[in-house]
């Protein structure tokens, strides 16, 4: 596993460049940075970049995603990690408290957990920080007047939107569909639910892999956009009845419910790429006594309906690109970009170039431009 961490670190070319600069400039000298994020090889590269910049990094993982080898590697390289892999929210909550007990100067938040807790028990030296996700932005936006410190939202950078949400999620969802099911995409009828940044990439990548793709969108403007992008936009029931592969990527709840299962074609494969496992109502399907099901540790659940039809659900409805055997998630390059935005944004908060008026706002344009320029220069060699 150390090989994979080293491979990821050496492939993060932007972060490596920033690390080398940070070793000289020491933007975080004497500061503590606290975080609670997925602890896996790509975040190792980010946390070690912050460490190279002089920070004492205190961290804990998220639920269900911490990789023991990443924890071990971080500890060996001077990062403090509280706890290990866990599915227990109470245990994780205790570790978040440990992170905040170190009174970090900067918080690298993921879902708003750290800033919300900070408000429950504020301390003097917090300068501000970053938030990685949309869900965290929604949570923290209502707390601006209480936080009153710079908090830059990485998800709202256009670079994150197109590099990760559109291109990388699209690629990794197709990769995961094929890795888990080992079925071809060629000539298959695929329906994508949701045409936000992620849905656009999923639809595009299935089409690029020779599938026949339709889009179901509740927003009429985005539905029109999907049509202009060359996808068919059938009515929902029509799409459900004809699809051989269905991907949900909306962020909404119960997008596919038990009422819909009656419409689906025999042998249809369903997968979710939205953040939470709430888009395909698998529990509802399996609660039906007339349905028998079989789950494998290969990431495929097959439900046999009373009329003999079989439906296959990948990854039990969890994010499919982190499910099944040997999940790798989004590409290293897309994360290198997103984490370079993180490193530069934390640097900006640390050196005071963004003030309290920048509370829960997108990454400043100057940082987007700098990161974009560096990536293009590196990529052109
Ligand atoms: N798998 C990954 O690696 C990954 C990475 C980034 C984001 N995400 C997640 O993917 C989801 C979508 O992200 P996004 O940035 O595209 O969001 P978005 O808000 O830009 O787009 C979601 C779209 O879904 C549509 N929608 C909502 N309910 C619908 C329904 N019932 N039927 C059809 N369409 C519906 C909305 O109108 C919207 O256009 C979120 O949960 C996000 O957290 C996953």
List the helices and strands and how they pair.
Layout: H1 2-11, H2 13-25, E1 32-36, H3 41-52, E2 56-60, H4 68-76, E3 80-81, H5 89-101, E4 106-109, H6 113-120, E5 128-131, H7 134-141, H8 144-147, E6 151-153, H9 158-181, E7 189-193, H10 197-208, E8 212-216, H11 220-228, H12 236-242, E9 245-248, H13 258-261, E10 268-272, H14 282-287, E11 292-295, E12 300-304, E13 310-314, H15 332-350, E14 359-362, H16 365-380
Parallel strand pairs: 1-2, 1-4, 2-3, 4-5, 5-6, 6-14, 7-8, 7-9, 9-10, 10-13
Antiparallel strand pairs: 11-12, 12-13
Helix pairs in contact: 1-3, 2-3, 2-15, 3-4, 3-15, 9-10, 9-15, 15-16
Bound molecules: nicotinamide-adenine-dinucleotide (NAD).
What does this structure look like?
- This protein has 16 helices and 14 strands.
- The chain has two domains: 2-149 and 331-380, Rossmann fold (3-Layer(aba) Sandwich), CATH 3.40.50; 164-322, NAD(P)-binding Rossmann-like Domain (Rossmann fold, 3-Layer(aba) Sandwich), CATH 3.40.50.720.
- The longest helix has 24 residues, at 158-181.
- The model has no long low-confidence stretch (mean pLDDT 95).
- A hairpin with a 4-residue loop joins β11 and β12.
- The protein has 381 residues and is an alpha/beta fold.
- The structure holds nicotinamide-adenine-dinucleotide (NAD).
- The site of nicotinamide-adenine-dinucleotide (NAD) has 26 residues, from α9 and α10.
